[in-house]
């Protein structure tokens, strides 16, 4: 559990509305989806100015390649800023898009999201529901590879599946790969593809009573999908400033420089200005949609989400294997016993035979003696 | 090199064939255009959004261009492979590329076996495969390992890191190291600038060692030229600086161009013709022999059964 002392703006949240009681604090869950190396870990750590997520060990990556699964990892952190407590959950999806065959790679993601809705639903239908654990996903960041061309089949299919269940926010990471001219064309092509394939992405509300906020919001919408640069390191720019950025031989790209990338806009969207909207749309739109499909008219849960979780299957297989091994071991033991018993039986039989022949011999002797006696 | 030209008298045009493989958007076409200093491969139009979902086969296309590097004239054929690895399931793509390469060998095999040979026969055997690795900064992915493993016995492979200006110098060095480790672990045989300690002179050995240490080559390409310090160069303009393609401190394109268009052309061709092709030929012929034998056996069995059956 990390405690963040640097200000990242979460404290603005209570100012947006009186609905959230600042005493109780809040829970916020973000899912990150994208190929390995897309820049997810770096981005999350940059956003929260803390190393929440650690980089996966390279030897573990090599091992993961052979398992060919998409798994779900949840990292939990507690933030306390200006006495406002937030439970922040980051859901990672290692293995997504990393293989030659990525057929149905989106399934574990969808199962997780639906599973969280179901878990909340079940708790909500309980007689006592003052202590509900809310793990519902409020935002899903989909990381698009900075190819500069357009979306790929896997991107389209996955975003279609996700967009109907969660607030989907497409993001272009490692934006310092693309020149500004190419970036504008790339964003346009992505937006065209999103529209052409009916992908639902999160649309922040633009209108606001406060002056200047509407313009800011409009600028935010126009910049989507956001192109971001991530960096946890402090570097010195040619003109002497110390900033979070990346140091190349030909210059320094800065994370918080709006001319370099949209990091600030995305941070505002996720935390400073639209966090509440993300939470309420999850509750009022996505959760309600799930609920209406999964609650029967007499108030019971129907159509449970099958836990096709790959990790689950793995554990199941491991248990099954262990069980089979134990059965084998027991059978081997029994066989040994059987052998021993057979051995004993044979020995006893032999002894019996021996005794029997002895008795026969003695009986014979007796007979002989009797005969001898009778003859006399 | 110059010896050979002098012996043949006058300037001969060398034939050189290369194939370039990698996923969409890694800058392969841009790199080829940078290499040849000529718009050899046209820019792919990807403006139709409906095209995004199509799962395709690899669209193998060959382009030919004339180059003149260090006085060495060449007819360079570049085979592009758009579509590789872009499907949700790209398992079939490896065989598609392997088939293409083997097909060129088959053509030569057939031609050599002819009694009356075609004097105008164009040898389209592939002399080198450039494989473009995306600059994730982590390690090789399944698709990278599979491709190199399956093709390394049939063609000279030179791995390259695409869009290398994504990585800082430290990240690039670590990435190169991890890639070479993964290549060694998976027993992938590359063209690693081999030299003979007894036969080659020190300069050649030194040159080859240096080139070997650069593997995989860090590539940056650009279609645009910019004015930098009074000179017109191929470069990429970012708000925070300019990346020069020909600058050896920024990337390895200059060295790679020299390898591909002048210094190692002959060696790559020789390895392809004398080693790789010969191996393929022996395999193919012994397969055919094996098949012929089996066929002969089956025929004999059939003959035996017919008169012998009661």
UniProtKB/TrEMBL annotation, chain A:
One Pfam family matching this protein: Septin
Record SUPFAM superfamilies: P-loop containing nucleoside triphosphate hydrolases
Keyword terms: Cell cycle, Cell division, Coiled coil, GTP-binding, Nucleotide-binding
Cellular component terms (Gene Ontology): cleavage apparatus septin structure; septin complex
GO molecular function list: GTP binding
Record-annotated Septin-type G domain positions: 24-297
Domain of life assignment: Eukaryota
Example GO biological process: mitotic cytokinesis
PANTHER family: SEPTIN
Family: Belongs to the TRAFAC class TrmE-Era-EngA-EngB-Septin-like GTPase superfamily. Septin GTPase family.
Protein name per the record: Septin-type G domain-containing protein
Lineage: Eukaryota, Fungi, Fungi incertae sedis, Blastocladiomycota, Blastocladiomycetes
UniProtKB/TrEMBL annotation, chain B:
InterPro entries the record matches: G_SEPTIN_dom, P-loop_NTPase, Septin
A single GO molecular function term of this UniProt record: GTP binding
Keyword GTP-binding: yes
Keywords, alphabetical: Cell cycle, Cell division, Coiled coil, GTP-binding, Nucleotide-binding
Signal peptide stretch: none
Record keyword Chaperone present: no
Domain Septin-type G positions: 12-287
GO biological process: mitotic cytokinesis
Domain of life: Eukaryota
Any one of the GO CC terms: septin complex
Pfam families referenced in this protein's UniProt entry, alphabetically: Septin
PANTHER family, A to Z: SEPTIN (PTHR18884)
Family: Belongs to the TRAFAC class TrmE-Era-EngA-EngB-Septin-like GTPase superfamily. Septin GTPase family.
Designated name of the protein: Septin-type G domain-containing protein
């Amino acid at each position: 559990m990390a405690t963040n002392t640097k200000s990242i703006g979460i404290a603005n949240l209570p100012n947006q509305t009186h609905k959230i009681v600042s005493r109780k604090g809040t829970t916020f869950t973000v899912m990150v989806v994208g190929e390995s190396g897309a820049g997810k870990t770096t981005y999350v750590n940059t956003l929260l100015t803390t190393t929440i997520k650690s980089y996966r060990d390279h030897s573990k990556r090599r091992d993961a390649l052979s398992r060919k699964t998409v798994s779900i990892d949840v990292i939990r952190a507690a933030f306390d800023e200006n006495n406002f407590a937030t439970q922040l959950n980051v859901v990672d999806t290692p293995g997504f898009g990393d293989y030659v065959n990525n057929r149905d790679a989106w399934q574990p993601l969808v199962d997780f999201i639906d599973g969280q809705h179901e878990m909340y639903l079940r708790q909500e239908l309980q007689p006592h529901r003052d202590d509900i654990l809310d793990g519902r996903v409020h935002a899903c960041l989909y990381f698009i590879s900075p190819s500069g061309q357009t979306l790929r089949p896997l991107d389209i299919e996955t975003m279609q599946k996700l967009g109907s269940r969660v607030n989907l926010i497409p993001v272009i990471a490692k934006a310092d790969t693309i020149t500004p001219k190419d970036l504008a064309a790339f964003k346009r092509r992505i937006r065209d593809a999103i529209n052409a394939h009916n992908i639902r992405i999160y649309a922040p509300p633009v209108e606001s009573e406060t002056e200047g906020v509407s313009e800011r919001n409009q600028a935010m919408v126009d910049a989507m999908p956001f192109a971001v640069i991530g960096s946890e390191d402090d570097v010195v720019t040619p003109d002497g400033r110390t900033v979070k950025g990346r140091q190349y031989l030909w210059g320094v790209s800065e994370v918080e420089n709006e001319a370099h990338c949209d990091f600030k806009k995305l941070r505002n969207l996720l935390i400073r200005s639209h966090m509440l909207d993300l939470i309420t749309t999850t509750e009022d739109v996505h959760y309600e949609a799930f609920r209406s499909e999964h609650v029967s008219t007499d108030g019971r849960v129907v159509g449970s989400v099958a836990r096709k979780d790959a990790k689950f299957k793995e554990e199941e297989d491991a248990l099954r294997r262990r069980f089979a091994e134990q059965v084998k071991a027991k059978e081997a033991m029994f066989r040994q016993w059987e052998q021993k018993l057979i051995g004993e039986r044979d020995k006893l039989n032999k002894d019996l035979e021996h005794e029997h022949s002895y008795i026969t011999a003695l009986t014979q002797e007796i007979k002989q003696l009797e005969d001898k006696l009778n003859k006399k | 090199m110059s010896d050979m030209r002098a012996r043949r008298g006058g300037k001969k045009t060398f034939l050189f064939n290369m194939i370039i493989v990698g996923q969409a958007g890694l800058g392969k076409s841009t790199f080829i255009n940078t290499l040849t200093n000529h718009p050899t491969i046209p820019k792919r139009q990807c403006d139709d959004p409906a095209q995004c979902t199509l799962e395709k086969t690899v669209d193998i296309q060959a382009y030919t261009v004339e180059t003149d590097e260090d006085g060495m004239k060449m007819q360079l054929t570049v085979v592009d492979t758009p579509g590789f690895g872009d499907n949700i399931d790209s398992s079939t793509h490896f065989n598609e590329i392997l088939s293409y390469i083997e097909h060129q060998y088959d053509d030569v095999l057939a031609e050599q076996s002819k009694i009356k040979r075609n004097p105008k026969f164009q040898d389209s055997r592939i002399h080198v495969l450039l494989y473009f690795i995306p600059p994730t900064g982590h390690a090789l992915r399944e698709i990278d390992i599979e491709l190199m493993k399956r093709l390394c016995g049939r063609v000279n492979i030179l791995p390259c890191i695409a869009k290398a200006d994504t990585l800082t110098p430290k990240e690039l060095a670590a990435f190169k190291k991890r890639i070479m480790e993964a290549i060694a672990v998976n027993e992938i045989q590359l063209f690693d600038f081999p030299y003979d300690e007894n036969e080659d002179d020190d300069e050649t050995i030194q040159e080859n060692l240096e080139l070997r240490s650069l593997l995989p080559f860090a590539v940056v390409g650009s279609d645009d030229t910019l004015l930098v310090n009074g000179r017109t160069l191929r470069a990429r303009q970012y708000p925070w600086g300019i990346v020069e393609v020909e600058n050896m401190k920024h990337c390895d394109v200059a060295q790679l161009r020299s390898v591909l268009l002048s210094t190692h052309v002959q060696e790559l061709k020789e390895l392809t013709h004398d080693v790789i092709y010969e191996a393929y030929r022996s395999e193919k012929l012994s397969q055919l022999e094996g098949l012929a034998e089996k066929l002969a056996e089956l025929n004999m069995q059939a003959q035996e059964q017919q008169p012998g059956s009661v």
